Amino acid sequence: MEKQALIEIKDLIKKFNDIHVIDRLSIKFNAGDRIALIGQNGAGKTTLIRCILGLYTYEGYLSVMNKNPRTEREEVLQYVGFVPQLPPPLPMTVSEIMDFFQVITGNDREKFYKITSDLKLDVDQHKHKPFLKLSGGMKQKLLVALALSRNPKILLMDEPTANLDPDARKVLVRYLEELPSDTLLILSSHRVKEIAHLVNRLVEMDLGKIVVDEPFSPDMEQAQEC
Q1: Counting runs of H as helices and runs of E as strands, what totals does the chain give?
Q2: Average pLDDT, the chain
Q3: Given 7, 31, 111, 211, which residue has the most CB atoms within 10 angstroms?
Q4: Measured between alpha carbons, how far is 38 from 83 in angstroms, rounded to an integer?
Q5: Please, which pLDDT band fits residue 223 given cuts at 50, 70 and 90?
Q6: Which sequence spans correspond to the domains of the chain?
Q7: pLDDT digits (tens, 9 = 90+) for 23-72
Q8: Phi then psi for 6, rounded to 5 degrees?
Q9: What are the residue ranges of helices labelled H in 53-135?
């Protein structure tokens, strides 16, 4: 039975100052895919994710849940959870961010508190603090909890463990292991070994193109190392 394509991309082009950061890229990401999106810095991984989120204009065709992420961005984001590589400079307190996400995404507040507790982040202790005043690790934990508590159909994570301590990384990995079987997970990460057991598909980018797209399992990684 063919998997449902949740994200479909055809001949996608994204240029900055006439430089092709995404160069006629075509690919489908399906329900149940657990994707390791890899590539060197500058390969186009983050730009691709931002196009999927509707943050950039682009040429070509891109649909998310059969919707255009530029013209139907609000509808698209109802299905998508996102953890960025670098926390955005949100000019709000922690409490204001929590309330904002509650309104626009309807995230499960009980699950949110459970995740923050597991990550050893005491939200109530910091809820009146400006987000900008939090440490990098605390910001990342908050964003992870907000994304996961939405129960998204599509979960995009750009280097999600970069600012997390080892114990928090283990907690994040456990939650990713427990995602529903039909959730599309795209992990852009340099720590492939850390996420290898979560992944069933490897997508490698180079110079804005897909150079590898193949099934993946931890056994394959071990064989490559031998």
Answers
A1: 9, 9
A2: 91
A3: 7
A4: 16
A5: very low
A6: 5-225
A7: 999 999 999 999 999 998 889 999 999 999 999 999 999 999 999 999 99
A8: -90, -30
A9: 73-77, 94-105, 109-118, 123-126
Q: Give me the pLDDT at residue 194, please.
A: 73
**Which token pair is 207?**
């110079």
CB 76 within 8 A of CB 51: no
Task: Supply φ then ψ for residue 223, to 5 degrees.
Answer: -65, -35
What mean pLDDT is predicted for residues 121-150?
Answer: 94
Integer Cα distance of 134 and 140 in angstroms = 10
The reply to whether CATH 3.30.365.10 applies to domain 5-225 is no
Strand partners, 215: 201
Nearest one of 49, 43, 40, 53 to 21, comparing CA atoms: 43
Query: What count of Cα atoms within 13 Å lies in the side-chain half-sphere of residue 115?
Result: 26
For residue 209, what are its two tokens? 């193109």
- Polymer length of the chain: 226
Amino acid identity, position 29: F
Relative to beta strand 34-38, strand 201-206 is parallel
